[in-house]
Amino acid sequence: MTATAVPALIAGETVLDETIAARAPWSAVVRAGDVLTIVDLDGNQAVDCLLYAADDTAVRYSAAETIARQGRIALTTGSVLRADTGAALVTVIADEVGVHDTLGGACSKESNTLRYGQHTRAQHGCMENFLIEGARWGLGARDLSSNVNWFMNVPVDPDGALGIVDGLSGPGKRVALRADVDTLVLISNCPQINNPCNAFNPTPVRVVVTRPDAAS
């Protein structure tokens, strides 16, 4: 898929079409009924994501509630991402990859140094991206919650250990999320270079918001 190709999975009026640079943060409010398509432009890029009800950011995505309600840990078409109140925030309505992570969390300076050594401390992580971008919406460290890792492959071993391995995505693969309420979406286009979640080479992704026709 080229950068000029129409990337949205769900047809409709294009409300927003932006490219998120490698390693960069991004945010927007996706209005109820609109569809956010995330495009893995070069393949094997992890996209960390936080979700909040736009009119009350105390209502935010809960991995525990989402996993318990759907009875599985991975996200794909039909998955409803819920707040800890049980309220639906977004629903995955189309998916070209099939598995998206709910358990791996977000990298940070602290986790990088613990896992990979003090020489990585200068490398900012997704937590730093979330703090930078969240500040634009009045959010601070206490407002951060569990996150989704779109396109990231985190298998669970029989002993319960989590692995971080090469992704299942490929160039141009997409996932589409319908906002069930006005939803504030924060993204960290993951800057991690110490494990294979990004093939050790962070790359850009594209985000497109469409407003489906009433007939569709």
Automatic annotation (TrEMBL):
Extract the NCBIfam families matched here: urea_degr_1
Instruction: List the signal peptide residues.
Output: none
A Pfam short name: DUF1989
Tell me where on the tree of life, at the top rank, the source sits: Bacteria
> Residue ranges of the DUF1989 domain?
18-184
Name of the protein described by the UniProt record: Urea carboxylase
